Amino acid sequence: PIIRALAPVAGAEALVPTTGSPIAYANLDYAASAPALTSVAEQVSAALTEYASVHRGAGHLSQVTTARYEQARETVRGFVGARADDTVVFTRNTTDSINLAASIVPGDVVVLDIEHHANLLPWTRTGRARVVSSRPSLEDTLGALEAELSRRPAALLAVTAASNVTGEVLPIGRLAGIAHRHGARILVDGAQLVPHRPVSVASFGVDYLVFSGHKLYAPFGAGVLVGRGDWLDAAQPYLAGGGAGAAVSIDDVVWHTGAARHEAGSPNVLGAVSIAAAAQTLRDIGFEQIGRHEELLVERLDEGLAALPHVHPLRIFDDAPSRIGIASFVVDGHTPREVAEYLSSRHGIGVRDGKFCAHPLLAKIGRPGGAVRASFGVGTSSADVDRLVEALAELG
Ligand code: PMP
Prior knowledge:
- The structure is a single chain.
- It contains 13 helices and 15 strands.
- By secondary structure, it is of the alpha/beta class.
- The protein folds into 2 domains: 13-36 and 286-393, Aspartate Aminotransferase, domain 1; 40-284, 3-Layer(aba) Sandwich (Aspartate Aminotransferase, domain 2).
- The strands form 4 sheets. A 7-stranded mixed sheet has the order 2-8-7-6-5-3-4, with helices on both faces.
- The protein is globular and about 70 Å long.
- The chain starts with 25 loop residues before the first strand and ends with a helix.
- 48% of the residues are buried.
- 4'-deoxy-4'-aminopyridoxal-5'-phosphate is lined by residues 93-95, 116, 118-119, 160, 164, 189, 191-192, 212, 214, 357.
């Protein structure tokens, strides 16, 4: 072995749910959706046993439920290191958060062509997006963004913190500096980075951060937008309805400010509780440990794949300093779908194939037909990685 065998992240073994499948199954698709941790399931169960309406009732259970929901908001605020006066809005997912953001931005938005469609289409359809072409060098790409922002003012730079295709990590602090130097704000798509690395909104200088619960070891259905309150409070509510209006008559409405303005309707309390539970558990395990574990797994996979001449990894940049636990590749002589089906049916390995909702990026890096993506999380062991490499070796 290239490195010593790695079990799942220490402290996480008991938290990773087992599938009950008769064959040992290697889930290497954390980047799509990460299985809910057992600690999350426990907290959701507890919340399920006693709840009533949130924000609406004077009864004991309503108060308990409201407290759980608002406590979850504060846990999320702490988890991402937000400023005390930032607004934390619960949404449905990252896509929803970015659509909300698109409804509040007062001006042009600069984006890169490497983005997931969730951080591209909400902007392009406003007609106010200026898409900057990425370069093979990350340094040159930062330069191109800076040039675009200095050429003409923009309200916002919207950028991913880590590619969902290659796992390459972008320098968020430097990007924030570039945006701010030119009078723009920055929105960071943290869907991929937040579950894998510590993120601090305040110390990185991030104005808005968005992410999804289902990639953070929580169930589907809840996401977050954290950020500066002024644009949020100045904009029309994202959803109109109960809870968003402070005073309503037939002819007029005074909207709330703060999170309530954009959270009309009964909120997803269980989703918020699950995100907070996952955040707390990841904190308890420790991001230093999570990051080190993934780096070793990525190194092991990269070395394994480098020995297979028929397997070709994808990269956006030739100088990205680090990657989260994601590796995409193509295999000579086989379509991505064939490879994914072979890995599943013959080896019990679950990966993703396709274009990963990043069609412009796949076209740009010369893989318009898509690729295969393996991705890791706290439950991944080095045996899972070895199994993938051995299975791919048989395709040579
Ligand atoms: N951005 C990135 C970088 C992603 O990886 C994803 C999910 N693949 C999204 C946005 C969209 O997330 P969701 O489907 O949870 O809205």
